[in-house]
Design a protein that fits this description.
about 170 residues; alpha/beta; Protein-Tyrosine Phosphatase, Chain A; six-stranded mixed β-sheet; 6 helices; globular
Length: about 170
């Protein structure tokens, strides 16, 4: 592709086209590894997936694209980016509910795209997600933030998620 054509294409792309392109790339290259898209269990027709390695929002967005099913998302952070129009559309399309774990979160800019719940810790978030998830959905533990909330790293955080799922 010529430099001029590439420049014109870059300037005329919409955020929705960028999101679609990112989804397509994610589907072609996302590989399950420990704490990254790791299937933990299927209980009552609900799949539980550990994606603790997703320590930023872009990694979590890649994970959403890997599922055709609707997702109950367990997250450690609510980003201001989530209030943007294209993000609101993505939430409406892919996410059934969001469960935030850890410290108090401000989600005033949700725009009614999705129900948001709060849990004190990962264990409570998993139990709440179990109640919210419908058969055929996925519970995705994808924090979209660095470790914290009492965890030294993503491995420790992911191990806690897996322990909580095994206790369901």
């Amino acid at each position: 592709m010529s430099d001029r054509k590439q420049l014109v294409e870059t300037r005329t792309r919409t955020p929705e086209q960028d999101l679609l392109r990112a989804r397509q790339q994610a589907l072609s290259g996302l590989v399950a590894t420990p704490h990254r898209m790791e299937s933990v269990a299927v209980l009552n027709e609900v799949q539980y997936v550990n994606d603790s390695r997703a320590t930023f929002l872009d990694a979590t967005l890649e994970s959403f694209a890997a599922f055709e099913e609707r997702v109950v998302w367990i997250s450690g952070a609510w980003s201001d980016d989530m209030a943007e129009g294209h993000m609101q559309e993505l939430l409406k399309e892919r996410i059934s509910a969001v469960v935030l774990f850890g410290a108090a979160h401000d989600v005033a800019e949700n725009g009614d795209a999705v129900q948001v719940f709060a849990a004190d810790n990962v264990r409570m978030a998993v139990f709440l997600a179990r109640e919210l998830a419908k058969p055929g959905e996925v519970v995705l533990f994808s924090p979209a933030c660095p470790s914290g909330n009492g965890f030294a790293n993503y491995e420790e955080r992911g191990a806690e998620f897996k322990r909580a799922v095994k206790d369901l």
